[in-house]
């Protein structure tokens, strides 16, 4: 009986380990391993429970080795062994499995070898969506970022040469060479200002002031480029998500890519929890709604009608009757696409076939409600 329970569970665990970048067990192993590696460097804590710390470190290492072997086997069966082995995820898995054992086999002190366990934190990097977005931003904005980097290096080198020329006679210990002046230029341009190297000549201080102002400008440019890149990537992701949602709505499914792009540009997405009032009867309306996911309930006289994915409501307010004819609320978690009156008129002008469809459905509902 125990084998019947253990073997399916182990099979499911191995399948999840092979198919996913990070499992819950992997996150627990990373957190535990890094925590134990930290305690290893605190002598009083290590002296209190050395066996427990070593055992947990060994268990975490065993898990990462097992995980790596399972993925190698899985990828070999799929014919993607070298693709995985040379990918960033494969390299990180290999480092997590082999770094500590190789250090121990090379004769390093165990406490020093286990410090390589800090590399286990790299395993969580591929699973962080924000870092993938950052990578895309860095690739897309690589030209402007490199241009600002060139400006940064030019200012650093020019400032270090200028300070060497102006300060070398009065401060030979700190400005006695261009490499020594480079330290001052870097900490000044980054506005860190450690205070250990300060120009004392009048012209030297003028150069320092110009370098500090240039530092603000350089880092302001970097910040602006990255912020603009992140904003563009966010808009792109939102556009793609809205596109996917719009294409699932039956009234939009027959439209071509250009038309769907027009629709996507004007629709707003609204996520609502259950039992949320969307429309109240007899209130003025200025928008209509499409149900992208979930379900809404329309409170009509003497009955209630449920509308599911692909349905729409509130169109009467846009077709001439500004008063809402019924109350509408969500019956479960629902995602709505909202089309405002101004955008509705522009969209209907561009796509008369869609206007005819909505108008026909609105008339049908009006007849049913009479």
TrEMBL record:
GO terms for biological process: action potential. Pfam families: cNMP_binding (PF00027), Ion_trans (PF00520). Keywords: cAMP, cAMP-binding, Cell membrane, Ion channel, Ion transport, Ligand-gated ion channel, Membrane, Nucleotide-binding, Potassium, Potassium channel, Potassium transport, Signal, Transmembrane, Transmembrane helix, Transport. Residues 251-365 form the Cyclic nucleotide-binding domain. It is found in: Cell membrane. The keyword Transmembrane helix applies. SUPFAM superfamilies: cAMP-binding domain-like, Voltage-gated potassium channels. Residues 1-18 form the signal peptide. GO terms for cellular component: voltage-gated potassium channel complex. It is a multi-pass membrane protein. GO terms for molecular function: cAMP binding; voltage-gated potassium channel activity. InterPro entries: cNMP-bd_dom, cNMP-bd_dom_sf, Ion_trans_dom, RmlC-like_jellyroll, VG_K_chnl. The chain crosses the membrane at residues 52-70, 82-106, 112-131, 143-162, 174-194, 206-231. PANTHER family: POTASSIUM VOLTAGE-GATED CHANNEL PROTEIN SHAB, VOLTAGE-GATED POTASSIUM CHANNEL. Homotetramer. Belongs to the potassium channel family. Cyclic nucleotide-regulated potassium channel activated by cAMP. This is pH-gated potassium channel KcsA. It comes from Bradyrhizobium septentrionale.
């Amino acid at each position: 009986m125990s084998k019947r329970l253990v073997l399916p569970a182990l099979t499911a665990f191995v399948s999840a380990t092979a198919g996913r970048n990070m499992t819950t067990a992997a996150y627990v192993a990373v957190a535990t391993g890094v925590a134990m590696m930290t305690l290893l460097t605190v002598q009083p804590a290590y002296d209190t429970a050395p066996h427990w710390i070593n055992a947990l470190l060994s268990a975490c290492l065993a898990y990462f080795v097992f995980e790596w072997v399972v993925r190698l086997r899985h990828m070999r069966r799929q014919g993607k062994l070298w693709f995985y082995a040379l990918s960033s995820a494969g390299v990180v898995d290999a480092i997590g499995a082999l770094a500590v054992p190789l250090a121990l086999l090379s004769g390093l002190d165990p406490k020093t070898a286990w410090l390589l366990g800090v590399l286990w934190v790299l395993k969580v990097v591929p699973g962080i969506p924000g870092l993938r977005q950052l990578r895309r931003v860095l690739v897309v904005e690589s030209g402007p970022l490199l241009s600002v980097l060139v400006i940064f290096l030019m200012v650093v080198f020019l400032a270090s040469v200028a300070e060497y020329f102006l300060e070398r006679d009065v401060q030979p210990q700190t400005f006695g060479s261009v490499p020594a002046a480079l330290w001052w230029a870097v900490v000044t341009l980054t506005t860190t200002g450690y205070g250990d190297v300060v120009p004392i000549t009048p012209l030297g201080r003028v150069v320092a002031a110009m370098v500090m102002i240039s530092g603000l400008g350089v880092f302001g440019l970097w910040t602006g480029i990255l912020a603009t890149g992140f904003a563009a990537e966010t808009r792109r992701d939102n556009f793609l998500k809205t596109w996917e949602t719009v294409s699932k709505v039956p009234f939009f499914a027959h439209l071509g890519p250009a038309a769907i792009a027009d629709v996507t540009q004007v629709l707003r997405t609204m996520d609502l929890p259950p039992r949320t009032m969307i429309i109240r009867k007899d209130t003025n309306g200025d928008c209509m709604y499409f149900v992208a996911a979930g379900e809404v309930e329309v409170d009509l006289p003497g009955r209630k009608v449920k509308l599911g994915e692909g349905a729409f409501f509130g169109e009467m307010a846009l077709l001439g009757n500004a008063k809402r004819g019924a109350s509408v609320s969500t019956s479960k978690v629902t995602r709505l696409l909202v089309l405002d009156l101004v955008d509705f008129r522009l969209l209907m002008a561009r796509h008369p076939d869609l206007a005819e469809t909505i108008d026909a459905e609105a008339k049908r509902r009006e007849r049913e409600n009479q």
